[in-house]
From TrEMBL, chains A, B:
<feature type="domain" description="Ion transport">
    <location>
        <begin position="434"/>
        <end position="684"/>
    </location>
</feature>
<dbReference type="GO" id="GO:0097682">
    <property type="term" value="F:intracellularly phosphatidylinositol-3,5-bisphosphate-gated monatomic cation channel activity"/>
</dbReference>
<dbReference type="InterPro" id="IPR028801">
    <property type="entry name" value="TPC1_animal"/>
</dbReference>
<keyword id="KW-0458">Lysosome</keyword>
<keyword id="KW-0677">Repeat</keyword>
<keyword id="KW-0407">Ion channel</keyword>
<dbReference type="Pfam" id="PF00520">
    <property type="entry name" value="Ion_trans"/>
</dbReference>
<feature type="transmembrane region" description="Helical">
    <location>
        <begin position="659"/>
        <end position="684"/>
    </location>
</feature>
<dbReference type="GO" id="GO:0075509">
    <property type="term" value="P:endocytosis involved in viral entry into host cell"/>
</dbReference>
<keyword id="KW-0109">Calcium transport</keyword>
<dbReference type="GO" id="GO:0005765">
    <property type="term" value="C:lysosomal membrane"/>
</dbReference>
<feature type="transmembrane region" description="Helical">
    <location>
        <begin position="100"/>
        <end position="118"/>
    </location>
</feature>
<keyword id="KW-0472">Membrane</keyword>
<feature type="transmembrane region" description="Helical">
    <location>
        <begin position="291"/>
        <end position="313"/>
    </location>
</feature>
<feature type="region of interest" description="Disordered">
    <location>
        <begin position="774"/>
        <end position="810"/>
    </location>
</feature>
<dbReference type="GO" id="GO:0015280">
    <property type="term" value="F:ligand-gated sodium channel activity"/>
</dbReference>
<keyword id="KW-0406">Ion transport</keyword>
Length: 810, 810
């Protein structure tokens, strides 16, 4: 469908905005009074636009900027009560909202965290003098102070104090500052558990929004979790008392001789770490005592622990939906605010392209003129020159699209001479044929079996000293040829656009690098050779379920990574505390008085004429520096045999140390349960989605098609000429030239983006979403009606006063 | 609402059935021809009923019986192709479908299973001679043969062969028979792994329907499970190759020195049983090698294992819904079949009470006349004398109700004299007051803390030799008084109708028995004393979430028990196999050549003048008899340190033994995942249900109210007088007397039953159910239309031919 309306109407719009940017108001009136009142008083009449042209343009620029800020706040789920309120705040806001500032934030936070590598107890290679690391810390803290002062400038003192996270950060900063100075003055490190709080600087980074969301989700899931945990602990206490009464008469049973031991061992039993062992002394005495343990494990491990997962999963599910709802409504409100700032008094029914373009200049400065126009056209579903509010609601879905001219050529070699075309066409057909694909699968399978057999034949020793095996070269050649054929047959761009091909490519590349390493005897790179079996992963393309699972895996990856990061933050806190208390307490042959002495033994004795070393190795699981602590904490997370580490440390310190380990277990249990719930939820959601949309074709992300005529492009060029935007003009002229070259009157563009969880949710909750919208606008209307009963007609668009805004969207 | 229609119309109905029971047809025609054809040909005309009254009554009796059988088949989800086809089959069906026969089935199966206690390797105390146990087995097998022959008589040879489960059972029976005879002849037990197949006799029992359903569900969940399992194993192989290449050059690392070891240890690592240990040698050499293990565990344990749960959960969810749907439609079809047999030619629009009563006599012989009539009235929602098909569809929901006359008295003591009444009323108010309840909670809490402190003070020794502690007596007295007050205040019936009160009662009773045991020094009962802390469970009544959780727990209990039984059946199979191969291979100091020798050590040496016994105890985890095997298998299920058991056995046999342990791990993993999925599903379902019905009041099961007038009762008595059913008449006359006594014209009855999962599902899938019904009837209509295009009007009621039936409901 081509538009034939005079283009001028899209691009010309010199009216005045219905509403004015609050910064502008601030500039013009400088009395800091109420926004709504001032706005009504000082809005210029429609006629005086010619006289104050430059002022009007300035007005509009300010409106564009504030609208863009609203849209950003909507996207990032920033509350509107942090919206910059005047021109000074705006400057600070803009300063604090760009990637340079974010990077500074992030690097300061990372520097602070990494300092623990160099502070005593430091990693041996990275040890720094106290003066050096304290100075570094002080420097980083000063940078944080600067960041916070910028934030205060933007938020104003009132809002700054009301913003909880920022307040906590300020307090932590204060404490850290004092401690850093104390360290610098005393020239010696004292017990600084507060270092564990450094994480908050990382969590507060703009880039760590996902971590903040995870933490919020974890805290929201806590109440039901704690309830069930209490049930769990309650049964544990009952069984501890029971076990004490039943088994303490047996003097050869070290596990139940006191109530404390009984409790600790049942706690460990809950993690099954000490399982058959804890039962054995009593089982040896009376076989029926196994009933006690079986009942305990059945209730605690197989019932209540699963109940815990169920409760968390249920809460998680519920929270996910509520989160989606509140985010959706928040975005909607943001769009309403932005819309209000972009319509003119002359045409209050929609946004013209000129204003839309102005908005996008601030919202997405990197977008080119063509894309701006395409976005406008994609939004505008009613074919009128103005984008109505209803269409504008789709802003977030459309603005992310990447636009490309639809190719007329099917293959990259269509323009080549006839002979070359035929050759490449042949390769193309070959590469796309089933025979070729299945041949490759067979080769991969044979290769897999080959590697397995080859490895099985080897019996230890250094495998790499010999020559490169011929099988390696043969298979690598086959993969190389396949890669070459595919690249030429499909064209490099199409070839690499598929994730699977990218995977093939990198594995083959690695294999080639491995060959090089073997051929030139570069020992440190031998590990690359070992990655060969990864080729086998290609076989999983064969079955639909695996494709589904692996796709889900890739979709989950960002969230998984953020959950992993959240876990690491907990690790960091525990590592710092662990280092402060337990650094250096465990060493070879340290725990001879404890029941786990064997695991810490290191004996070097001579049998015959050979020196035999008997090692328990557990002394390696220590808190001597932050890297060791992380490994130790990972071992505690895996839970198996964690009591050996606990008992080792306990025997060298006090039995209160157990609290540390038990609390760590419970914390990781929470996080792990959340991770399991998350995977469950994501997977089941995805499966339900697939089931619901079984009839629709393969999922290729969101695709939109729009046609642009030459006239339209010329119209836009005219518009830009007035604002003298040289780069935009040349870019647009290129499109016109292209059209002329192919003799087309119009070009079709394709907008594409990958599908996000939000898109899936939109589809899943389709019906409910309408209800939410209605409920939301009802609520807003009633609120506005209460406030201003006179202006009821356009009420849902009226931005609420700041206080109200923060109430509406929580 | 009271009915005033002449009662005769309900009770009189001497017409002929529209359709005749197939047994009757068989009796009358004896040609075994097609059911539909014969029926159409031989149905007597409407007029000749007076002449053939006794024959007609006989006809009706047969119809009642077949209708009852249809309804039973619908309820038990028996396929209609096993419906008895003629009078001979009916006799066998009736013989094989009563509790006596079921009990025989069950006890034979149990006898066969329990034989493994006495067969070598037997539990020492229960050892029997080969002759004795082989004879017992032969006897049990003969009983099974008898059962099967009855089944064959009922099903007919054709159906018998087509019924898969029965065929498998027959084959197993045959093998067992031969083996039992061989044992008897040779007078020595050979390797009889086939004993593991004895479980099938238990699974086939009528009472083990839940186990069969579980097994079916497990098998249905298998395909996706196996897919993910392959992914898991695939990564394991890749990492095994990698690990072998990376770590085998380190000669002090026993875990990766061959590819087989590498594989086995990564398998064990998947269960985390060997975790920090397997890493330690390489970690000691190069700290960065921990990356290998962390990546492996992250992928396998934290990602794919959770994916496995997600996939199973998803499949489980789906299966549950499909199962509910098919069961619902199956019941509907059964009701249609039954309805067709109960309507008369004169009144084809519904079932009269006379015929309904006849049906119930066969369907629920123990139901009394009053209940039958109330069920009829509850079904009959249209207030006409006949129950239409639409009403009859609610049969299964209504027939389970327990009817009781609505009491006019509020309390049990309402009839007592004034003074007594006031006293009891006071107690009643006291008992129901919040103050009393919270006082009791406080007492329980204090008691709990008291017990904890008291136990903490004790330091080993024999606690029971002293006198009864006074605190015990004080608290028991308080509980006793509470119990007394509650029983008198509420009346014993109301008191015990609450599950919580029942729990209080039994715990208090136990505490009292414990006191007796202490007072009279009955040592074997001391363990009862130890159950006191269970009182503390009462505290969980305080919070809503706990009540919810505990209620869900009780609701889940039957399914959990059946899942447990399913697990036990798997245990049994593995125990038998384990005993055949590994009995007696493990003993103290047996595995000195293996890496786990320490755990099997038993050293008795003298230090100073004391004898010190060092025990590894693991030799106790053996397969020497079936009880030991079960405990060992439970330890393997808990997974921790299972590799010690595996390596011990392996070192004494061949390394193929590992297969047994690995397969067992995978099987329990499947069952455990299903259990987790089940708990998750049940809990989330329940939570969603609660959320959906938040506004409705507390859940008290299904309650229905029906009023019966005196005239109606008299009418029923008349009806029964004609059939000379003496007990029913006396019973009904009692109701009339009761009414006369209180001068009422009618009595209100309450029907009550507890809510089942099916009720919840009905409510949850409300909308979808209508779609299913429509789809179902459409499908049936089209099938019937294809078969008989002429009789389209009443088509959905027409029972399909037997073959078709089995197709419709699968």
């Amino acid at each position: 469908m081509r538009w034939r309306e005079p283009p001028a109407i899209y691009f010309e719009d010199s009216g005045n905005p219905v509403e004015r940017s609050s910064y502008l108001i601030e500039l013009h009136t400088n009395d800091g009074g109420s926004y709504d009142v001032v706005n009504d008083a000082s809005s210029p009449a429609a006629g005086d636009c010619c006289a104050q042209q430059s002022s009007a343009r300035h007005n509009w620029e300010m409106n564009y900027q504030e609208a863009a800020i609203y849209l950003q706040e909507g996207e990032n789920n920033d509350k509107f009560f942090t919206h910059p309120k005047n021109a000074k705040a705006l400057a600070a806001y803009l300063f604090a909202h760009n990637h340079l500032f974010y990077l500074m934030e992030l690097s300061t936070a990372l520097l602070l965290l990494l300092l623990s590598l160099c502070e005593a107890p430091a990693v041996p290679m990275l040890r720094l003098g106290i003066f050096v690391h304290a100075t570094l810390e002080l420097f980083a803290l000063i940078v944080v102070v600067f960041e916070l002062s910028m934030k205060m400038r933007w938020l104003g003192f009132q809002t700054f104090i009301r913003h909880k996270r920022t307040m906590v950060k300020t307090c932590v900063l204060f404490v850290q500052f004092i401690e850093a100075i104390v360290v610098l003055v005393r020239q010696t490190s004292h017990v600084r558990i507060t270092r564990a709080l450094r994480c908050i600087f990382l969590v507060d980074c703009r880039y760590c929004g996902a971590v903040r969301r995870n933490l919020r989700q974890i805290f929201q899931s806590l109440p039901p979790f704690i309830d069930i945990l209490l049930l769990l602990l309650f049964f544990m206490v009952i069984f501890a008392i029971l076990g004490f009464y039943l088994f303490s008469p047996n003097h050869s049973d070290p596990y139940f001789n006191t109530l404390e031991n009984s409790l600790v061992n049942l706690f460990v039993l809950l993690t099954t770490s000490n399982f058959p062992d804890v039962m054995m002394p009593s089982y040896a005495r009376n076989p029926w005592s196994c009933v006690f343990f079986i009942v305990y494990l059945s209730i605690e491990l197989y019932f209540i622990m699963n109940l815990l997962l169920a409760v968390v999963f249920d809460t998680f599910n519920d929270i996910e939906k509520r989160k989606f709802k509140s985010l959706l409504l928040h975005k909607r409100t943001a769009i309403q605010h932005a819309y209000r700032l972009l319509i003119t008094k002359q045409r209050p029914s929609g946004i013209s392209f000129k204003h839309f373009e102005g908005l996008l200049r601030f919202y997405k400065p990197r977008m080119c003129a063509r894309e701006r126009y395409l976005t406008f056209k994609a939004l505008n579903q009613s074919n009128t020159p103005l984008v109505s509010l209803k269409d504008f609601y789709n802003f977030y879905e459309v603005v992310g699209l990447k636009w490309k001219a639809k190719r007329n050529r099917e293959h990259w070699f269509d323009d080549l001479p006839r002979t070359a075309f035929l050759i490449f066409k042949g390769i193309n057909i070959l590469v796309k044929s089933r025979v070729f694909q299945y041949t490759m699968y067979t080769v991969v399978a044979v290769n897999g079996i080959w590697i397995l057999v080859e490895t099985f034949m080897l019996q230890g020793g250094n495998f790499f000293s010999r020559n490169v095996p011929w099988s390696y070269i043969v298979f690598l050649t086959i993969y190389g040829v396949e890669l070459l054929l595919k690249t030429t047959g499909l064209g490099p761009v199409e070839y690499l656009s598929s994730g699977w091909n990218l995977f093939d490519f990198s594995v083959t590349l690695f294999a080639f690098l491995g060959l090089m390493a073997l051929a030139f005897n570069m020992e440190p790179f031998y590990f690359i050779v070992v990655l060969r079996p990864l080729q086998l992963l290609r076989l999983f393309k064969l079955k639909k379920r695996y494709r589904n699972v692996l796709d889900t895996m890739f979709e989950l990856f960002p969230r998984m990574a953020s959950l992993g990061l959240t876990l690491l933050i907990f690790y960091y806190c525990f590592a710092i505390v662990g280092m402060e208390f337990f650094a250096g307490v465990v060493y070879p042959n340290c725990c001879n008085t404890s029941t786990v002495a064997d695991s810490y033994r290191w004996v070097n004795h001579t049998v015959g004429n050979k020196t035999v070393v008997e090692e328990g190795y557990y002394y390696l699981n220590n808190f001597d520096n932050i890297l060791n602590s992380f490994v130790t904490l990972f071992e505690l997370t895996v839970v198996n045999d964690w009591y050996i580490i606990m008992e080792g440390v306990t025997s060298q310190t006090t039995h209160w140390s157990r609290l540390y380990f038990m609390i760590f277990y419970i914390v990781t249990m929470v996080v792990m349960t959340i991770i399991v719930a998350f995977i469950l939820d994501a997977f089941v959601f995805r499966m339900n989605y697939t089931r619901k949309n079984q009839d629709s074709e393969e999922d290729n992300g969101i695709v939109l098609e729009k046609e642009i005529s030459k006239e339209e492009v010329v119209g836009i060029i005219e518009l830009y000429k007035r604002t003298s935007a040289a780069t935009e003009i040349t870019q647009l002229q290129k499109i016109v030239l292209q059209m002329d070259k192919y003799g087309q009157m119009s070009t079709v563009f394709l907008g594409r983006r990958s599908r996000t969880k939000s898109d899936l949710s939109m589809k899943m909750y389709e019906e409910e979403i309408q209800e939410w919208y209605e409920e939301h606008s009802r609520k807003e209307e009633s609120q506005t009606a209460l406030q201003e009963p006179a202006t009821a007609s356009n009420s849902s668009l009226k931005p609420l006063s700041l206080r109200q805004r923060s109430q509406t969207v929580i």
